[in-house]
Design brief:
With 85 residues, this protein is α+β, with helices and mostly antiparallel strands. It contains 2 helices and 4 strands; from the N terminus they run E-H-E-E-H-E. 34% of the residues lie in helices and 34% in strands. The chain has a 4-stranded antiparallel β-sheet with strand order 2-3-1-4, with helices on one face.
Length: 85
């Protein structure tokens, strides 16, 4: 199944700079793994936002949920998800 997934990262104002950097590093690393294994088929940055939009290809909605949950940044992610025909 294909899904259009929009992600925007929203960090608490009181979050330490070092902690935020660590989360962002993990986000980039895990995102790269998901691109390599084909889970993220296409991805584009959102201008002026701390986020992206992409086409994710997974077996079913449960697999999509697991992939999103695997992101170190998951607690700070605001997501919009649409199933694509």
């Amino acid at each position: 199944m294909k899904f259009l997934v929009e992600i925007e990262l929203q960090f608490p104002a009181e979050m330490a700079v070092e902690e935020k950097a660590k989360v962002l590093e993990g986000h980039e690393s895990r995102g790269g793994e998901l691109i390599e294994d084909g889970t993220i088929a296409h991805i584009w940055r959102l201008t002026g936002k701390n986020g992206n939009v992409g086409v994710w290809e997974v077996e079913d909605p449960t697999a999509l949920s697991a992939a999103l949950d695997s992101m170190p940044s998951f607690p700070y992610m605001q997501t919009g998800i649409r199933a694509l025909g």
